[in-house]
Amino acid sequence: MSPPRPPRSHGDGEFSPEQFRRLGSDVVLERGVMVFHPENIEIGDCVYVGHQTILKGYYKNLMEIGAGTWIGQQCFFHSAGGLVLGRNVGVGPGVRIITSAHVEAGRGLPILHSPIEFEPVVIGDDCDLGVGSTVLPGARLGRGVQVGAGAVVKGHFPDYSVIAGVPARVLRLRPER
Fold first, then answer.
1. Distances (CA, A) of 106 to 4, 31, 69
2. How far apart are CA 97 and CA 113, in angstroms?
C-alpha cells in the first residue's frame, strides 16, 4: 500500500459577507464563527449563528439556512452532500450535521483512505434539534420535528414527530392545538 498523501490545510475559516452566495438581512454571525466555501452557502434573513460554530461549506453542493433560524454555539455543519435547513429551525448548542461518510472497503484499506459517499440532509421548517444531537448523511426531517438532546439521527421522519435516542426513533407525534 502506498503512503497516504500529505495533509493540506483547509484554510482558517475567515470570511467576509460579500463572499456568501446569499447573505440575508439582519444576520448575526457571532465572534469565532468559521466559514468555509461561503460561495456555496445561502443564509436567509434574521438568522443567528452562535459563537464558535463552523459552517463547513464544500466546493460542490449548497448549504441553505432558512430565514428565522437560530443556531447555538459550537455547532458543526458539513455540506459536502448538500444541506438544507428550513425556516424557523432551532438548533441547540453542539449539534453536528454531517453529509458524507467513508464507505467500508474491506480490511486491506484503512477506513480513513476508503471512498467517501455523499448524501444530502434536509431539515424541514419549524424543526428543533436538541443540544448535542448528531444528524447523519441522508437524514430527512419533516416539518416541525423535535429531536431530543444527544440523539443520533439517520433516516426519514414524518412531520411533527418527536424523536430521540441512539439511533433516533419516533416517540410520538406532537399534538395539534
1. 17, 43, 41
2. 21
Q: Is the dihedral of CA 159, 88, 30, 64 positive or negative?
A: positive
Ordered structural domains, the chain, with CATH: 19-105+112-172 (2.160.10.10)
With CA atoms as reference, report the closest residue to 20 among 34, 38, 33.
Answer: 38
Task: Tell if the pTM clears 0.85, that is, is over it.
Answer: yes
Q: What phi and psi, each to the nearest 5 degrees, are found at residue 176?
A: -80, 140
User: Which residues have a Cβ under 8 Å from the Cβ of 147 and sit 6 or more positions away?
Assistant: 127, 128, 129, 130, 133, 135, 141, 153, 163, 164, 168
Instruction: Report the C-alpha gap between 74 and 69 in whole angstroms.
Output: 16
* Chain mean position to CA 131: 13
Is the pLDDT reported for residue 145 higher than 90? yes
What is d(CA 13, CA 101) in angstroms, rounded to the nearest whole number? 22
pLDDT for 11 beyond 90: no
Per-residue pLDDT tens digits for 100-121: 999 988 999 999 899 999 999 9
The whole-angstrom separation of Cα 59 and Cα 39 is 8
- pLDDT category at 1 given cuts 50, 70, 90 is low
Q: What percent of the chain has pLDDT over 70?
A: 98
